[in-house]
Structure formats: C-alpha cells, structure tokens
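haha ok so turns out i had the wrong file open the whole time. this is the CORRECT one, sorry everyone. sequence first:
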Amino acid sequence: MSTGELVLDTIGTVAIVLGVLLTFVASIGLLSLPDVLSRMHAATKPQVVGLLLIVIGGALHLRTSPDVWMLVLVGAFQLVTAPVTAHVVGRLAHRGEGGLRRDLLYVDELADRPDEADPGPDDQEESPPPHRNGEAVGRSRRRGGAGSDGASLDSGE
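then structure:
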C-alpha cells in the first residue's frame, strides 16, 4: 500500500466517522427537540452534511468509477430531496394544529396571509378553478382543439 493510498484511506475514515457522529446528533435532535420546526432542522442540516461526509469517505475508500458515481448520485439525491421535504413539513406544521409552538418563533411570516395558492389535502374546493377562456388547461386555444393544423398542446396562439 502506497503512502497516497494510506492518506486517502485515513481521510476517508475520518470523514465517515464525522458523518456518523453528525447523523447521530441529528437523531438525538429528532428525539429531544420540542416542536416540528426544530426537529425539521435537526433532520435536515446535520443529517445531510453527515450523509455527504459518509459518501465522501466511502468514495475515498472505494475509488472505482462505478462506485464513486453511485455515491455521487446518492449525495445529489439527498441534496435535492432534503430541502423540498423540509419545506413541505414546515408548511404542513404551520397549517396544522398542535405541531407548531408559536411561542418559539421569532418571526411568523405566514401568520398574516392564508395559503390560498395551496389548499391542504383536506380542504374541499367549492368550484373548480377558473381556466383561461373557459377551456380546459393544456389544450390548444384554437377552435379546432388539440392537434388541429399541427398545433401543439400548449401553443399560445
């Protein structure tokens, strides 16, 4: 084993250990923090960094192209899904009853305006949303309907 490989293995091991520790801290935060928004931060911030450190450490240990690319995909998937999930959880916690401790909020930017653009899954709309020119969404505006005269479905003509 050469010196370069030993250094890469050592750095990989340190990254994996730090990642495991951060993920462990995230799990403790999920169990001990008081409300949904605090738990959401514990579930996203240290957990994502911890997983990325584990992925980097694994890539430094494996060093083969297919393995490294698979780990890159895992890291990218985590970076894309964690913020979206945290956003959805935060919005649902703000809408719901009992999941959010409003006394812990410094600023509540969503308190003054209802979320009319996205009614919850339990909210029933009384009438269907209005469509442009009384036609169904996604169809051509031409009188002949979709596909007439070679028009595409979303042509704005």
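The longest helix spans residues 65-95.
again sry for the mixup
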